[in-house]
């Protein structure tokens, strides 16, 4: 089938490459010319394992990119909206980009003959597909459902494992207003071994939010337990490893530490809170999930201050800038509030991340960036570990070059910190 992908960020570029791998002809649309040029040259616009190989294989053959909506719509049967859905200043979902993409799609659809399905893949709060996207498309195309199809197909991929997750999903959810458009979207995934859940658009939208909100809740729950354990001198990892053996709980997402970041969990939980409030419900549990998460970075700095006293003029190494390992994405990374607080306290920051130095430079230009953990640690009076990169697990001799060997681990990552290190766990 012929597919157009609107927005070629994390979700769009991975979906495009994977749909091409499944045998479809894919045309990407973005307003960012540099991303279009990269995709057409077979270069991924983001770092994601397995993506370079797929782009190299399909670019210029089954995969192309353009800024021309009309060209893309005329040359495809199905369009996926994969643009960003950030938070506004209040934390509510900002649908401005979805609205703009829907209007552009509608304008192009007006000129198209034949059936075309529009699929919302962006994470949007319940009712958005039916009450916002659909009316905009109707207005701009002059057409009505039946003349075109409309569906909602949330994406569950994890950054860092996105290609793997797309090709080996544990669920595919398709919400459609009518059977025909749902059938078309389902057929695009033929070849993947996965049950397809068919429902209506608002349920599909809700499934995505509940999925993320539940995972975020598990993390904040584990952090609260971890904070209590720390005060009691109990190793929370021992506790949660036993608790996770209960099949009703499971062993995943029970790791306490510096909290969750990334482009999805914080904004999606906040968006669900905003939607609940809009319809007159006060979501107390979800608000606590955010509050606990926002408190964890400050606990790291508090531990540091308890050990070092004033941070004025002190050189603090921050290892890990990406919001998690295997990505260069720093959106909502827990290292951001930590670095900000360190700078507010007058500390000097020596930072290192295997992939995210360049992205963090755009936020904090005045701190030191190093090309290895050893270089960042050299002369530091303390080290904060913020991201669970594999290469940090085996750090040991690198701490020798520190001025003062204090290591505060926000991710329970160090395997053998070394005997002459003062090793402090955030929640253990
Ligand atoms: P992103 O910001 O990385 O990419 C969005 C892309 O859309 C950008 O390349 C941008 O230039 C482009 N764009 C903006 N306006 C446009 C327009 N009018 N027309 C065409 N393109 C336009 O976003 P992302 O991380 O890929 O997320 C996209 C959506 O998917 C969000 O709703 C997000 O919540 C959801 N999601 C993200 C992930 C993830 O891990 N990143 C996982 C699941 C779901």
Write a structural description:
There is one protein chain. The chain has helices at residues 10-21, 33-40, 51-58, 69-74, 96-110, 128-141, 162-167, 179-188, 201-232, 236-243, 265-278, 284-308, 335-344, 357-361, 373-377, 390-393, and strands spanning 2-6, 25-29, 63-66, 78-81, 117-120, 149-152, 172-176, 196-199, 315-319, 348-352, 368-369, 382-385, 406-409, 422-425. The protein is an alpha/beta fold and 428 residues long. The chain folds into 2 domains: 2-199, NAD(P)-binding Rossmann-like Domain (Rossmann fold, 3-Layer(aba) Sandwich), CATH 3.40.50; 210-428, Rossmann fold, CATH 3.40.50. Strands 3-2-1-4-5-6-7-8 form an 8-stranded mixed β-sheet, sandwiched between helices. A 6-stranded parallel β-sheet has the order 11-10-9-12-13-14. Helix 9 crosses helix 11 (265-278). The protein is globular and about 70 Å long. The mean pLDDT is 97.
